[in-house]
Write a structure and sequence with these properties.
binds fe (ii) ion
């Protein structure tokens, strides 16, 4: 367990600030059925050798683990939401190794809670071959390096906790030298079977890096080609939101026990209630890639409480970090 003494030894004392709760509902616990299952959703960490981000991440872990000292329920599980490291997609082998080494060290030194991880686009090694100088034949090419770091054979999985079924998706697939948000056919097949195996009374949470649904692409869209009726349209990037969203809508119509979808990627706070599902984008541990706030979103993480009756409560908790120069 992280203590103040261990923080002092790590040179991190003083970095842990009191939480400022600025969204949602504080959770007092206890539905009649018992305490909700609590996830700390730490997304878009982007750890890197620069900007003291390792200290920032350590202070974030410390903040999560200090919840009981603040009179709150402890997090039962940390879920990292992708973009664990600053960037591997365009990075060479040495830079990629340095970033994963940093993640591994901070996690080992500063976190005693269970961590499960989603893969983000910046965790994928070498897809931008022209910059990363990769061939595609490297043993750790693509998502394999991240899977090795996360101790998994494939970049998606599901688990049952606190009366909930929790699905961690891999939403990053190649497009040219970059990526788009989707599931491939193999993962769709797996997801269909996975949800079919869950009792209808068991609530389901999906976690993806790229949002399954978001208004952010619309809010930032340029004008697109006029539609068939000649009316103006918007150009929405398939790199910002899942291009296979209609398939999710059809899936959710068959599985009404899917209650919420958590995401990252956009470094913003967003909450959409649509079709009986809550779509929650959880800001970023790194805020604006460690350089400051991003679109008003502070350095923070989401505390997500999964109640046994299917209710989901999420609030964003800044952990007191400010940008270093
Ligand atoms: Fe990111």
């Amino acid at each position: 367990m992280l203590t103040r003494r261990s923080l002092v030894q790590a040179g991190l004392a003083g970095l842990v600030a009191a939480p400022t709760i600025h969204r949602g509902t504080a959770v007092a616990d206890a539905s009649a059925a018992g305490r909700p299952f609590r996830i700390a959703h730490l997304t878009d960490i982007h750890v890197q050798p620069e900007l003291e981000s390792a200290k920032g991440l350590a202070s974030c872990f410390a903040h999560v683990q200090s919840l009981p000292e603040r009179g709150e329920a402890a997090a039962d599980l940390i879920v990292t939401g992708g973009d664990t490291v600053m960037d591997c997609m365009e990075a060479g082998r040495d830079r990629t190794q340095a970033q994963w080494d940093l993640w591994k060290k901070v996690r080992a030194d500063a976190c005693s809670l269970e961590v499960r991880s989603v893969v983000g686009n910046h965790d994928v090694w070498g897809w931008t071959k022209s910059k990363a100088k990769t061939t595609g034949d490297e043993p750790l090419y693509g998502k394999k390096w991240a899977c090795e770091q996360f101790g998994r054979a494939v970049p998606y999985e599901s688990l049952d906790r606190g009366g909930w079924h929790i699905v961690l998706l891999d939403s990053v697939f190649p497009h040219a030298e970059g990526y788009i948000g989707k599931l491939d056919d193999a993962q769709w097949d797996w997801l269909e079977k996975d949800l079919a195996s869950v009792a209808a009374a068991t609530p389901v949470l999906l976690v993806s890096h790229i949002p399954i649904l978001s208004v952010h692409p619309l809010a930032t869209a340029a004008a697109g080609e006029p539609g068939k009726d000649g009316k103006p349209s918007f150009a929405l990037s398939g790199g910002l939101v899942h291009v296979d969203h209609p398939k999710f809508q059809a899936l959710f119509a068959r599985h009404r026990n899917v209650k919420a979808c958590l995401s990252g990627h956009l470094h913003i706070l967003e909450r959409i209630e649509f079709g009986g599902v809550s779509y929650l984008c959880s800001g970023a541990v790194s805020a604006g890639w460690w350089k400051g706030r991003h679109r008003g979103t502070d350095f923070g993480y989401a505390v997500v409480d999964l109640h046994r009756d299917g209710r989901v409560e999420s609030r964003y908790v800044p952990y007191g970090w400010t940008a270093r120069t």
